[in-house]
Amino acid sequence: MLARLERALAALPQWLHDPDLWYSMDVNYHPPRVERLYRKFEDGRIFLHCIYPCGRDEALIHPHPWPSAMLVLSGRYRTIVGAGAQRKRPVMVMESMVSATPEADYRYTMDNPAGWHSVIPEGGPVYSIMVAGPRWSRWIPEETLAIAGRLTTLTPNRVSELLETVAGLYAQHQRANA
Ligand SMILES: [Fe+2]
């Protein structure tokens, strides 16, 4: 998945200045609120995320429906991780704090279908880029699937702002990691 992320990052600059190339979604049915832009990439998708702070115990603990890899561009967050292939939320076994900057080139993958996690930004939003591959057959909570189809889009102004912010952070990342 890291190779897929690398390919997506190489293509990303050509997509960051045209809002018409992106779908948007305001993922606000459960904390943390996530403003999401996404588009097709290879046989999966690329997502740009702005994730807002929330309380440690209110953050959604969730599995992913597909393998994914992330570059966290900026922000400080707590993350809690567990593993379980069943429907029940697993015991969460690891908790850590991450402080990401564009210079740090902080990347990680979730490429095991049994993985669950939560992300709890602190002090301000976290900006990240995620790529996902084809869907796994693993079980996903019904509420996630049902609600995803009813979420609203972001305003055109907000889409432009997000693209501008990500473009600025990604340019910083590129300069620092050239
Ligand atoms: Fe996630």
What's the arrangement of secondary structure elements?
Blueprint lengths: L1 H10 L11 E5 L6 E8 L2 E8 L10 E2 L4 E16 L8 E9 L5 E5 L4 E18 L9 H7 L7 H21 L2
Antiparallel strand pairs: 1-2, 2-3, 3-8, 4-8, 5-6, 5-7, 5-8
This protein binds fe (ii) ion.
Fe (ii) ion binds next to loops.
Instruction: List the secondary-structure elements in sequence, H or E.
Output: HEEEEEEEEHH
Number of domains: 1
How many β-strand runs? 8
Whole-angstrom Rg: 15 Å
Going by CATH, the architecture would be Sandwich
Shape: globular
Number of helices: 3
Task: From the 3D structure, determine the CATH topology.
Answer: Jelly Rolls
Could you state the CATH homologous superfamily? Jelly Rolls
Bound molecules: fe (ii) ion
Which class in CATH terms? Mainly Beta
**How far is the N terminus from the C terminus?**
21 Å
SSE-based structural type: alpha+beta
Average pLDDT across residues?
Answer: 95
Low-confidence stretches: none
What can you see in these coordinates?
By secondary structure, the protein is an alpha+beta fold. The protein has 3 helices and 8 strands, in the order αββββββββαα. The model has no long low-confidence stretch (mean pLDDT 95). The two termini are 21 Å apart. Strands 1, 2, 3, 4, 5, 6, 7 and 8 form an 8-stranded antiparallel beta sheet that branches. It is globular, with a radius of gyration of 15 Å. It has one domain: Jelly Rolls, CATH 2.60.120. It binds fe (ii) ion.
